[in-house]
Structures are given as structure tokens and as C-alpha cells.
Amino acid sequence: MMESLSRHLFYPLWDIKDRSQRLREWQALEKQQWWPADRLRMLQWERLQKLLAYSAEHSPFYRDLFQAHGVSPETFQNPDDLLRIPVTTKSDIRNNLDRFISDEFDRAQLVSAKTGGSTGVSLQLFFDEACQERRNAAQLLADRWSGWDLGMKKAAVWGNPPVAETLKQKLRHHLLDRTIYLDTMNLNDTTMGDFVQRWWLEQPGAVFGHAHSIFIFACYLRDQGITDLRPKGIVATSMMLLDHERKVIEQVFDCAVTNRYGCEEVGLIACECERHDGMHLNIPHVYVEFLDGDNKPVKPGEPGKIVVTDLNNFAMPLIRYRVEDVGVYRERACSCGRGLPILERLEGRVADFLKLPDGGQVAGISLVERTLTKVAGIEQMQLIQEAKDLIVINRVRGKEYSEDTDKKIIEAVREVFGDQVNLAINDVIQISQEPSGKYRFSICRV
Q1: pTM score, two decimals?
Q2: 299 Cβ partners below 8 Å, 6+ apart?
Q3: How far apart are CA 20 and CA 414, in angstroms?
């Protein structure tokens, strides 16, 4: 009954109280997802032109940038025109934060946030409330693709879970959010056992969390022989979902995993639907490009650096922002019938690509996954390239570990790097987390 009340009563009343457009935008997205691709692209282009014109007038950073490069957004006719605008980097934001903010907004009245800083440096961000509402609407849409629905209780496997302190926060927690948390900053047999007990008591209908943290919890359930946790949906986000981890999670929970991709800077970028055949790009809200090393578009099917323009945030516009991830886009339709285009796969962060002796690069995350699936006896693994000729392998022993395991790890890595690179294996109890609670499987310090 509480689930029904939350969905049909508390969600609408809360939006009315806050004068929010979140549910209205969600209902619009529910319809737009089924539009033909051409109609969706037209909607996206109209919103992009509106954002560009606004930024040229009200964002000091982009006003000066456009003038310096002879850019007149009102003359843009097609996506090729957008290439005349230089890519925005994290460094640009850190060095010019105030100049990104629109002169129509008071910074003190904006919603602020910080990125987790997985590369070592966090980023300060600002959003207007309308932007936040539209982002939340897109999340509702994507969450429903997983099997979750409004009002359904969630189990969140997340770092630094929020604590409801004010009366409003407590009411929201019990009436809307309805979430129980497993803190990924303290994952051990005791905390996971306590979480299982609470799960049995509260019966959440869906799981949300960091992909690798959900995998660790799934391994605990598997090893403990716990087989009665059966959610209707599982959403893995915040980091890459590895194929072998997806298999373990789905086997343990008897539920398909929905892979979702986004970031603090621009919100939801892409998400799998119920067909789990690539991730649908959230093109009503973001304009996504895939670029090569010279910031030129790559061909469909080729890996490219992901560059995103946020179509929602007018308070602090981000145009052609490099999120420092690499992905592959394909021009194909999903069998679900939605007109939203497909992000075929992610290949990792730019900083996670390791450097080969011949000057090439390899996605460290892919090498980790291949090694984990090829060599028995590894529970977790992390590659750290300390120098061009030195790679440190942090390895957690699995149940099938034997004296041949490390030898096979070395052989697998040497197939890629050859004999010119020194390899050192560290026997560790666990892979250390980032301050955000996420894990990095490969790190390049060269």
C-alpha cells in the first residue's frame, strides 16, 4: 500500500508543494522516447541552438570564446558548424569558474555540487533548479527501464550515503526516496550481513549502486549461499560494468542488470533499456560527440573521446565538454522501437588507458577484464602504470588461486606489452577505493 501511495499521492503532491516540473518533464520523456529518430534529432537541435544563443549572450566565458573564434551560433545550420567551437576541458572550468555562470543568475541561489575527483582533482559545478528537475525526470525514465517504478523501495549500494537531518529530509526519505543503504566505504562481511538482515525486513524492489560494489555484494551472497534476494531491477552506474561482473550479479539476484552512464557535470548521458543491447543516448537532454585525438568526429563503430553539451543547464552552460571517457557509437536502432540512438559501449576513462612500448594505447579496463575471465584464481585486479616500462598489478586472491595463477597473469599481460615492460605483482587483501567509494581498475601515471 505504501508503494502505491508514494507513486500516486506523495510524488505528485511533493511536486506541487515544490512547484517542480520534474513529473511533467518525465511524462514528456515517456512520450518522446518513442518518437522517430529524425523527430528526436530535430528536438535536440532546436534545444542546442537555444542554448548556444543564450550562452553567447549571457555566459562571459562562452561570449568571449565565440567572439575569439568568430562563432555566431545563430548562423549554425548543422552539426558540422559546432566543430568551430573549441572543446571545453576540466581545466577551463577550474580556471574560469565564475565566468561560466550566466549573468542572469545569482551564484548564491544556485544548486552546487562537486565531482568526486577520481583523477585527483575535484570540480565545482552549479545548476539552476529547472535543470535539476529535468535531470531527475530523465533518471526516473531510465530507472523505470530497469524494472523499478515510482514509489518502489530501493536498496542502494553507495558510498557516503546521505543522512536525513531536517524534518523535510526525513519526510522525503520515508514518503518518496524510500531507500536503504549499504555504505561502500565499509564493505565487509559484517556490514553486508547486516544489510541482508535489513533487506529481509524492508523488502526493497530494486538495487542501485556502483557496478563493482554491487558485484562485491553479489559475491558475498553467493559465498554465503543466500538465494532469496530477488529484486525486480538492478541499476549499475558510476563506473564501468564488466561483463564477468554482470554475469555474477545476474546469477545471484536472478535479475537482469541495467547499465547506466552519466556524470555529475551533465547528468544522465545513456542507459540500457529492457533489451540490454547497448545504451540509449539521452538526446532530449544532451548533445553527444565522439572525437579523435585531433577533436574530429570518429566514424561510427570507432572509439572516440566523449564530448557532451548539456541542453538543460542555462545557469552554468557546458558546451562541448570533454568528460574524459572513451566510448563507441553506432548508427543502429534498438529492437525495443525507441528512437533514441545507441552508445554501443564504454571503453574507460582517458586516464585509464595504458601506454604501449610502440607508442600505442590499450584500454586498461579491457585488459583487466580479459585477464579476470582468462585466469582462474583472481577475485579482483588493478593495473597501475608507474612508468613506461613498469606496470604494477594489484591482485586479490580468489578461491581457485594456485601457484600458476600469477604466472598466467604475467603471460596474459605480456601478450599485450611484450618483454619491454617490467611487471610486478602485489598480493593485496582488497583493491583500495577512491574517496567517492568507486574503484579504478587501471591507472596511468605516465
Answers
A1: 0.84
A2: none
A3: 56
